[in-house]
Structures are given as structure tokens and as C-alpha cells.
Amino acid sequence: MAKGQIIAGDYIVAASVISLLFASSVIMWWKVNYQIQQDFMLSEMKAQADSALKLLIRSPGTPLNWSKEVSNVSALGLAKTDRVLSQAKVNAIKTIEYDRLRNLLGVGGHHVYVKVSAVGGSLVTEAGQLPDGQFVVNSRRASVLDGKPVFVDVSVWDRVD
Amino acid sequence: MDGRGLVFTLDALVAASLVFLVLAYVNGMVGENNVGDWSGTRMLESGYDTADVLYNTGALQAMNVSWMERIVNSTTPPNTAMSMRILSYTNSSGQMMQSNTMNIGPPVPDSQAVAYGKRTFLTFKDGGVEYYNVAEFWVWSK
Fold first, then answer.
1. Number of domains in chain A
2. How large is the ipTM?
3. What is the least distance, in Å, from the CA of A6 to any CA of chain B?
4. Which of A116, A118, B66, B113 has the most beta carbons within 10 angstroms of its beta carbon?
5. Across the interface, which of A11, A46, A83 has its CB nearest the CB of B36?
6. Which 8-state DSSP code applies to residue B52?
7. pLDDT (tens digit per residue) in B1-29
8. In this complex, do A10 and B2 lie within 8 Å of one another by their Cβ atoms?
9. A26 touches chain B (CB under 8 A)
10. Edge-to-edge strand order for the sheet containing A111-118?
């Protein structure tokens, strides 16, 4: 075999390896980049869910008696006192218009679903839209309603095309 | 065989292997999703929630172990465990004397990170304070 042909053969093998490497790097870079963006979005959604939940179970909202006139509410909270929920506010949250609820809970452009349930699982109240997307984060905390322990769940969710 | 060509190919293969290793490592690191991890702060928050639920339902003041255990078991997140110790003191002429100790939940592990918090509360009898209580709790990942 001629010397030139051997060099050309080696060159083709090396070029194939480099091309494969380049293609793999591009694919992995795209994948890593996508993963970082996704993790960032999920972290942001988790922080929003935690913060909304904290607001709901620990704050009475503004004005204090907002459940009497839901249209006046400027800050949302379900608490009568710290971690003790008010039945009137728990009932009133489901009457808040959805976009307003999202703004009051500070979830930005994402969707939100709020659920109050008994420890056994029976539903007490719910507000917002049930999660229907590939990105869903949920936060749950225990609280008290009418002298009994309940769970308050906040789900922040989104679908990204 | 031409030595120059062989060295060129070997170099490319070694370089490719190294870059692949680095990319695979980076990919593995990024793939680890940390959202939802139970950090110490969240465990502590969950402990305070449960302690407040115990207090606000009256289970803590009743010092009823089975009632307290039921609440602790039902409100503690499934991926965590919680243990509680209640120390009760009486006021004897300005001197706080420990009178009772009550333990709830499994023993606290000593080989892993544990979140610790406490809550104070009073119990009353005949219109006066009977006990000055400290409820200490420990929360850890199962």
C-alpha cells in the first residue's frame, strides 16, 4: 500500500472521531443547557410555591376581614392566627377570580392550585386550576382548622412547549 | 506503517476519550435534580408546623401521648421522621424544678444530620400555672 494512502486512511479515521466528538459535544451542550434552564425554572416555581404557602398559613391577609368583601383583598392569607386557619377565609378563597389569585399568590406567569384537605384526605376546599402540565412543584404544610389538623397544598405548574 | 499517521489517530482517540469523560461527568452532575430535596431548613419548618398543630389542637397541653403520636405521624412528611421530648417544670419559690419528662417518637439517630427546634408552653390548673413546659423536637430524613 502506498504511503500516501495510509496517511489518508488515518486522516479519515481521525476526522471521523473528531466529527463524532463535535456532534456529541453539541448534543450534550444542548442537553445540559436545557437541563439547567429546566432546573432553574423548577427552583423558581418551588420558591414561589413555598412562599405562597407560607403566606397562606401564617398571614391573615389584608384587610384582616377580606373574606367579607373578596374584591377588596390586597394580600392573601388564610390564617386567623399563626398556623390556625379561618373557616371564612378558607371558604372565600375559591371565589377569587383565577388571574387575581395568581397575582395575589405571586406565582408570576405560572399556574397555581391551592387545596386544603383533612389529614385523612377529604377535601375541605380548593382554588385555582388543577395541575395539567409537565412541570409541577408541590408544597405541603400542616395547619389547624376548627381544632383539627389539616394540610394546605400549593401546586405551581406550567407547560412549556 | 507510517508512524506519523498512527500518532495522529491515537492522539485523537485519547483526546476524544478525555472529552467524553468530562462531558459525561458534567451531564451526570446537571442531571441531578435538587428541587424538592429536604434541606435542614425545610425539616425544621416541618417540625415547627407539627409542634404548632400539636399546640393548636390542644394535644400538647393535654400531654396525651397517643393523641400526640397520632398527630405527629399524620402530619410529618413521609420522607422524614420526628421525635419529641417534653420537659415540664414547676416554679418552686422562684426556682424552676424539673418534674416530668415525656418522649414521643423513635430514638434520634446519631449518625446523620438532624434538625432541632423547641417550643415553650404553659399548662394550667385551678386558675394558675401548673407546669412550665419545653417541647423539644428533632426531625431527620428517613
1. 1
2. 0.77
3. 7
4. A116
5. A46
6. H
7. 455 555 666 777 787 788 778 877 877 77
8. yes
9. no
10. A79-81, A84-85, A135-145, A148-158, A111-118, A123-128
